[in-house]
Amino acid sequence: MTSNGTLDARDRGATLSRLATERFDVLVVGGGITGAGAALDAASRGLRVALVEARDLASGTSSRSSKLIHGGLRYLEQFDFKLVYEALRERDLLVSKLAPHLVKPVSFLYPLYKKVVERPYVGAGLVLYDAMEGTRRPVPHHRHLTARGALKRAPALSPDRLAGAILYYDAQVDDARHTLTVARTAASHKAVIATRVSAVEVLRGPDGTRVTGTRVIDEETGRSFDVSAAAVVVCAGVWTDLVHELAGVQAGYRVRMSKGVHVVVPRESVDATTGMILRTEKSVLFFIPWGERWIVGTTDTDFAGDRAEPAATEEDVEYILAAANRVLARPLTRADVIAVYAGLRPLVTSVDNGSKPTTKLSREHVVDVPLPGLASIAGGKFTTYRLMARDVIDAAVVGFGREVPESVTDQVPLLGADGLAAVQPAAGRLAEDYGVSRAAVEHLLGRYGTLAEELLNLIRSDAGLARPLAEGHPYLRAEVAYAVTHENALHVEDVLMRRTRLFIESADAGASAAADVVAIMGRLLGWGRRRRAAETRRYLDLIAAEQTVIAIDPGPLSGRALAG
Ligand SMILES: Cc1cc2nc3c(=O)[nH]c(=O)nc-3n(C[C@H](O)[C@H](O)[C@H](O)COP(=O)(O)OP(=O)(O)OC[C@H]3O[C@@H](n4cnc5c(N)ncnc54)[C@H](O)[C@@H]3O)c2cc1C
After folding, report:
1. In the 8-state DSSP scheme, what is residue 372?
2. Of all protein residues, whose CA lies closest to atom 19 belonging to ligand 1?
């Protein structure tokens, strides 16, 4: 039996009392893509599941990635064939069946500068890359281009030394929205999902050996209580070592943090009709089309600061701009930068390879069971979350002493995917029926799939919700209301940073929309005048804090650093 997967922020009290009173088979700690995936995997096997997330769903690494669902061309060079093979299979499954509304094909131009060696070398890699795909082939094959063909698709490239290019295909996703949709799909299979609830202690049974749940704190009220579960599954990304410490265990691996920074620039600052990938000294640099913008990155450096607020530095931004400008005819300057965001890769390492550069550490995942009843997972990639989830739940249920069905998530489309093919052609009719523009319907279909009709129904009952949230951006006010009533948004940043992406897409980080967001949220959540003022201030303070991160020389820097 499934329900509709609604995560209504107004029901938070009831959700927390379920956490405190029910006994679960699996308690997942962490609401990034790995934890959301684990909750879905376990719930769709018929288990009783709860998930606690210390902040907001996807507020860690899972909203700060390059947003690619890809095999990872560069891992071929590291002979990580298994990882590339698995990731490509997952990419194809997501594009064609599990999440076609969220995961969409995107092309990348790989410019070539060395006439003789480079084309056969990169070409051979791409033949292998394409060959590793499944047979259904939801994205096209790669193609070789002349220098002229490359410049036609990307006039932004400098023609100097350009010998030609190869065009290949991968896929992209709004990482935060995908994570949220996985969590909602888990909820549709009866998982209890609670945000701003932190695991603060790992509980053990009377004999002291077996884990029996965790003590948690409700971060909104400071109240603590216990959650009972037959197995605790740690999906805490770069916080994993800290959760192991709470349990008083040393797992068989450690997590090493590697920081990756991206800058966001307007679409018109780089004239190209395709994404681009450039080889850099240590790794690669992507130009990723993102609506009316480009996301450009990334970096890969060791990190030891605050996990919750990884900061971009001046050097990070300079490095990205310099790497981009090596190939652009018109260089990008600091004035082009709308936003900067940083994320932390949770890379697995043993004590032995602690000094290895982070670019060389494997992106494969590791599962461990350091205590009976405690399973943990780290490493991996966003792309392979479904396999990670399957593996950690397989490990968690070993001690159950009863048969647990195998993972079925390769057959479970995410909410909004089912029936999409029949709804997409009806965009024009829906626009007429609900009295909104076709562009608005297409925008909603591209973000919510078939659930778009739930938002259209909100608009039908309150026409004001059809108005745009911010000038020049496609988001509608209905998305704010829906974020509260269906997507568990509790604070303004949940809406502006993750349910929508105004934080990285607008030059003012969404500040000018904050008052309207507070008004809509406040109406639904019963916020009084004081609370509304506090919520607005909280968001503006958050932006101000982010703006100080790299604004060492605020003069030439028109953008800002952020973490969302
Ligand atoms: C710059 C960058 C670019 C990337 N690009 C790509 C890409 O293009 N494609 C790709 O496939 N992968 C990419 N990745 C990797 C991918 O983003 C990560 O592997 C993935 O998001 C990790 O998800 P996670 O759920 O393991 O961790 P997280 O998303 O960090 O989730 C962990 C969660 O646990 C919560 N938590 C921690 N402690 C507790 C506690 N005690 N109680 C409750 N909750 C707790 C945290 O608040 C957090 O939300 C990229 C990573 C980075 C940094």
Report:
1. T
2. 381
The Cα 540–Cα 491 span in angstroms is 12
How far does residue 159's CA lie from ligand 1's centre (Å)? 38
How many angstroms separate the CA atoms of 284 and 90, rounded?
22
Give, for ligand 1, the residue of 66, 91, 319, 374 to mutate: max count of ligand atoms closer than 8 Å to Cβ. Answer: 66
Supply 490's token pair: 């509790």
Tell me whether residue 300 is exposed, middle or buried, using C-beta atoms within 10 angstroms of its C-beta: 0 to 12, 13 to 18, 19 or more: buried
Cβ neighbours of 243 (radius 10 Å): 24
Q: What is the 3-state secondary structure (H, E, C) of 217-275?
A: EECCCCCEEEEEEEEEEECCHHHHHHHHHHCCCCCCCEEEEEEEEEEEEEHHHCCCCCE
Amino acid at 331: P
> Residue 123 — very low, low, confident or very high, per pLDDT cuts 50/70/90?
confident
Mutate to test the pocket of ligand 1, among 178, 382, 388, 498 (most ligand atoms within 8 A of CB): 382
pLDDT of residue 560 exceeding 50, the answer is: no
> In sequence order, what are the residues at sequence separation of 6 or more whose Cβ sits closer than 8 angstroms to the Cβ of residue 23?
48, 228, 229, 230
Cα(15)–Cα(43) distance, rounded to whole angstroms? 16
Cα 345 to Cα 341: distance, rounded to the nearest angstrom: 13
Cα–Cα distance, 191 to 182 (Å, whole number): 11
Does residue 382 have its Cβ closer than 6 Å to ligand 1?
yes
**272, pLDDT greater than 60:** yes
Given a contact cutoff of 8 angstroms between Cβ atoms, the answer to whether 196 and 489 are in contact is no
Q: Is 54 in the pocket of ligand 1 (CB under 6 A)?
A: yes
Within a 10 A sphere around the Cβ of 563, how many other Cβ atoms?
25
Summarised one tens digit per residue, pLDDT across range 49-66 is 999 999 999 999 999 999
Integer Cα distance of 511 and 497 in angstroms: 11
Report the candidate in 375, 316, 319, 370 with the shortest Cα–Cα distance to residue 344: 316
Tokens of 148: 């002229």
**Strand, coil or helix: 102:** coil
The answer to whether 16 and 218 have CB atoms below 8 angstroms apart is: yes
> In angstroms, what is the span from residue 124 Cα to ligand 1's centroid?
32
Question: 392: Cβ–Cβ under 8 A, 6 or more apart, which residues?
Answer: 34, 38, 233, 235, 367, 375, 376, 377
pLDDT value of residue 554: 36
